[in-house]
Write a structure and sequence with these properties.
three-stranded antiparallel β-sheet; single chain; 379 residues; Glucose Permease (Domain IIA); 12 strands; rod-shaped; 15% strand
Amino acid sequence: MKALKSAIFILIVPMITFSVSGETLEELKDEYSTLIDKQESKMTMLNENYSIQDEIKKQIADIDNRLSDAHVDIDKIDSQMMEIIMKIDDAKKAYDEAVKNREEQYKKASKRLRHIYENKDENLSIDIIFNIDNISDYYIYKQYVADIMEYDAKLINDLKETENVMKKKLDEIKEGEEAKSALKNCRTEKEFEMIVMYDERNKLLEEYRSNADAMEAEIDEIKSASEKVYEIITGMEDNIDFVNTYTGGELEWPVTGRYYVSSDYVGRISPVGNGYEFHTGIDIPAPAGYEISAAEDGIVTTAGWINGYGNTVIINHGGGLSTLYGHNSEITVNQGDKIKRGDIVALCGSTGYATGSHCHFEVRISGEHTNPWEYLKRK
């Protein structure tokens, strides 16, 4: 960018210091030709800057897409973490419930063991068996013993099952915590990636804005350069002896058969994104390659590139009047040619700052633009 600004400075300085006094027409033509070459070089650099802007916008858009994907990933991680946290909470509740059950089961088992120890479990004594008088009492006693043994076995099994539940829930809690920790780490990595992307985006945005500011300055300088071109043209016109001088009358319509005007001699929003501007002529749309004709007799003072206007023809008609034909795809005359009204001077196009094929037509008095409708009318 510094190199670009330096080139712009080098280009503008000779324009500002240029003077037509004391120079011959040929010298003026040579300096004018050199100036146009420098302007073309400047336009090339400006177009390169537009390419840089487009690339920066693409990079910013790519980062925005990646940031959007990262936000989606983080939302998924948060959703997974919520599910895991809920499972951990459920496992902890189940574990706490198992602990309570185990305490109750321990109490029952302890009470049962204490009873057996203190009473020697007299109800299960061998003496009782020998004192049974009939078979019916025997089966009753047998069932009684079986019920006691089943009760004791259930106490032990319930205790074991509760211990297994506790172990299982502890394992679930551990696995859940590990999964939650892994997701936290993943989320942290995503957040770090986003910080890096935001930083990169901000740098690109700053570069984009910096380039945009530089481009606006360059466009202003191009306008200034165009004004200097007209100063040179005016100086050249002062050195030309015309065979005839324009003394009034209606000019020829420059685009025969095409009478629609897409942009008039008024203030407007620039179609190439340069804010509000005054449109210094009229735009007459026509297909690329359509013939553009001279509005009046005169001498060609410009037949080449002018920044903004693209391929441009300017004809001096004498009496301080000149006409300009801009954005041409091709120029069919040369500087210094004597032109008759209606002669073909160019082919329609969209060179320079243009959004479509058209003829940009201006009428100038002593180098200053004026309302074309005061000199011509549609057929």
